[in-house]
Amino acid sequence: MGMRENVTISIKDMLNTMMMRGRDRDLIPFSISFVTCDQKKHQGGKLIHFDSAVFVGGPSRKDKARNPNHYENHTRNIRHLNSDRLVKIHSHLVLKFNGMEVVQ
To answer: What is the structure's pLDDT at 65?
Structure first.
């Protein structure tokens, strides 16, 4: 039996897939594995896996009092399907998305 080649997905395709909606207009859940990073608190490095998560927020053009600059910082907000807790992820620190290895 030959070695099975790992299936990969680009960061761009991952981000586009995160925002996909089904026919019911609800966001389509995805699985994701990522490494935590909080540069302000100098914390991170934990590997986190969500078997079912949904996209909550990303780049927006609206003026806000506190603009998180998701686009410039390569971050997105997600939440586990069974939780209300928002988690900010860095797109460059995502290792797996829907079982696929994430590549540049």
So the answer is: 47
